[in-house]
Amino acid sequence: MNFKEIQELIRMVSKSDLSLFRIKDKDFELTIKTGKYTPPVVHQAPVIHHAAAAPVVIAPPTPVATAAPEVEEKPKASPDQKKYVEIRSPMVGTFYRSPGPDKGPFVKVGDVIDSGTTVCIIEAMKLFNEIESEVKGTIVKVLVDDSTPVEYDQVLFLIEP
Q1: So where are the chain's domains?
Q2: What's the fold here for domain 81-160?
Q3: I want to staple 158 with a disulfide (CB 3.0 to 4.6 A). Which of 10, 134, 140, 148 is the partner?
Q4: Residues 6+ apart with CB under 8 A from 76
């Protein structure tokens, strides 16, 4: 790049809304910062020194201007829940208890089911996936409301084998 081209780039960047312009070629690198440029904030991680022979522990950097993700704790199983088998969602989607709005649910609390019985449908990306029981037993509890979103591996039903 010659001097005139660099001057033209400086003029164009100063007239634009850009705050930072960077160009890199084989042996050439140019960075133009305008008055609008504010450098990103970098937080230093704390360093903890122990005795002379101990290793140095460095905490991971904390993200800037982001909310901490909420961690959903799984409820602890009560002693009587341990005897139940859980049917979990194999995917993320929308949970449906029945094959259609005017039809009854696939299963209800108290129903005795066999292995391979369809217990619900999970709709994901306009595909309706029938979820089948892998165990034989009695439906003890339905843990999800109809037409609500479910997460991967979320417990949908409790079965007493």
Answers
A1: 1-37, 81-160
A2: OB fold (Dihydrolipoamide Acetyltransferase, E2P) (2.40.50)
A3: 140
A4: none
Q: Indicate the SS3 state at residue 94.
A: strand
Other CB atoms closer than 10 Å to residue 89's CB: what's the count? 20
Given a contact cutoff of 8 angstroms between Cβ atoms, the answer to whether 157 and 139 are in contact is yes
Give the DSSP letter string of 31-88.
EEE-TT--PPP-PPPPEE--STTSPPEEPPPPPSS-PPPPPPPPPPPPTTGGGSEEEE
Residues 6+ apart with CB under 8 A from 30: 1, 6, 9, 21, 22, 23, 24
